[in-house]
Amino acid sequence: MYLCIMLQEFRTFIRRNQLFEGDETILLAISGGVDSVVMCELMRQAKYSFAIAHCNFKLRGQESDDDEVFVRNLAVVMDVPFHIRHFETAEYAKSNHLSLQMAARELRYEWFEELMDEFGYRFVANAHQLDDQAETFFINLLRGTGLSGLHGILPKQGRIIRPLLFASRKEILEFAYVSGLQWREDSSNSSRKYLRNRLRHELMPVLVDIDPFFSKNLNNTIRILRETEAIYRQKIEEAKTDLIETNGKDTRILISWLEEFFPVETWLYELLRPYNFSITVVQEIITSLNAISGKVFFSPTHRLIRDREYLIIESFDQIGSLSAEPVMAFDPLLQTQPALPIPVTFRVERYHDFIIPEGTQYACFDYDKLTFPLHFRHWKKGDYFIPFGSKGKKKISDFFVDQKLSIDEKERLYLLLSGEDIIWVTGMRSDNRYRLTKSTNRVLVAELILPPDEPGCLFK
After folding, report:
1. Are strands 442-448 and 429-430 parallel, antiparallel or unpaired?
2. Spatial distance between the Cα atoms of 30 and 40, rounded to a whole number of angstroms
3. Among 220, 231, 266, 356, which is 20 to 30 Å from 202 by CA?
4. How many CB atoms neighbour CB 421 within 10 A?
5. Which of 411, 451, 455, 415 lies closest to 431 in space, CA to CA?
6. For residue 187, what are the contacts with CB-CB under 8 A and spacing of at least 6?
């Protein structure tokens, strides 16, 4: 009777969670432990088509090899296809700076993907069960992963399915004993050095002693959390339309609009989560909202600038392309020109009949004072020029402050140089040393080609 109930719950769980269609062949990840052996037996009794895959990670010497022999024999008894792969796990972990557990995870899932693509399996099944679910919940709770970490192990995640996620470890053992199944015990499961094992051997027995149905009750709570998270995520996605601006060069969050959302910290954390900002950094960003602009924050993959009006997010790839020192040398009189970093044209005019054009997109220089070829580059610390109309030097950094440029705008702006002299902060101000005078004979006119909808200076 017990066997029939377990089999029926197995089929019901697969159908309710739409894990796979009944006529599909499923790849089973079989370690040889009791959970995976029971999954294999239930697949056989339910008359589903399946194949077996086993990973020999070579981490436990003869024990690993004996596991492989056991699973190979299991496939023979079941009369199903068998796939085996040997891994140099310790070597892979060392060369990739990973823990053994993470290395084994990467290796096996990469292999499973290869198998599925080669043999046409749509899904690979893992034998996670309710106690694994509970252990994962507490691991995430201890690590402080937030709501996303509390939804537990999903029954179906991409090409991975978990058809045993309805049964507790106790129920699985009872099924194995009643069915007369044999399995392998992994000696590493008794080690207390792994957090999961400590929870399994120290915390879980206490909770089960308090409530024998603890795993099932917790699973119901996890299901409610998962459904709550779905509603939560939907609301976040709807708000992103209003809060986030993406222009192809960076991502921006309007600070005044963000402050209308409560609680600000939670909203900002969710908005920045795709960019890998931790909750600690988010808290620092929140504090900066009431301080002066210009502070910079980092995640492992992105930089965030607290600008006057926006939080500006850029990936390190974007920053790298800007921070590299682009130097573009060219002679404006040559017929063939290299591709310039900004849309600018040059022409030479005679001064005696020249009318100075109006607008910051134009800059006029005494041609005969210039040293060719000219250069474009980004600004760097220590740069200075003599702004048109003045006689004294001014640091470019101070000029930027006067113009109220953001860090992002400063990094994108180009300077035009003659020799070592900065002669034009493009689209903003030219240098007084190269101005037109009564002695000027020829004029070099530089013009930024501005888009029709961007009447101001172009420096981004």
Report:
1. unpaired
2. 8
3. 220
4. 16
5. 415
6. 60, 63
Query: CB under 8 Å to 319, separation ≥6 — which residues?
Result: 303, 411
Are residues 173 and 130 in contact, defined by beta-carbon separation less than 8 angstroms? no
Question: What are the start and end residues of each CATH 3.40.50.620 domain in the chain?
Answer: 2-212
- Coil, strand, or helix at residue 275? helix
Torsion angle in degrees (nearest 10) through CA of 118, 123, 126, 132: 140
Residue with tokens 């507790």: 168
The 10 Å CB-count burial string (b at 16+, else e) for 302-316 is bbbbbbeebbbbbee
Distance CA 234, CA 257 (A): 19
Report the alpha-carbon distance of residue 53 to residue 51 in Å, rounded: 7
Dist CA 43 CA 46 (whole Å): 5
Hey, how many other C-beta atoms are within 10 angstroms of the C-beta on 163? 28
Q: Which residues on adjacent β-strands are paired with residue 56?
A: 86
Determine the pLDDT at residue 323. 46
Taking 50 as the pLDDT cut, the residues of the chain under it are 321-324, 453-460
The three-state DSSP-derived secondary structure of 114-162 is: HHHHHHCCCCEECCCCHHHHHHHHHHHHHHCCCHHHCCCCCCEECCEEC
pLDDT tens for each residue of 270-280: 999 888 888 88
Contact 432, 391 (CB under 8 A): yes
pLDDT of residue 65: 94
Three-state SS sequence of 77-99:
HHCCCEEEEECCHHHHHHHCCCC
Q: At CB < 8 A and 24+ separation, what contacts does 194-199 make?
A: 194/101, 195/139, 195/142, 196/135, 196/139, 199/135, 199/138, 199/139
Question: First and final CA of the chain: distance in angstroms?
Answer: 73
Q: Kind and range of the H or E element at 232?
A: helix 214-243
Give the containing element (helix H, strand E) for 304: strand 302-306
Q: 2-212 in CATH: which number?
A: 3.40.50.620
pLDDT of residue 167: 94
Q: Is the dihedral of CA 11, 15, 21, 22 positive or negative?
A: positive
pLDDT for 450: 67
C-alpha distances in Å from residue 21, one per residue of 11, 12, 17, 18, 25: 11, 13, 11, 8, 9
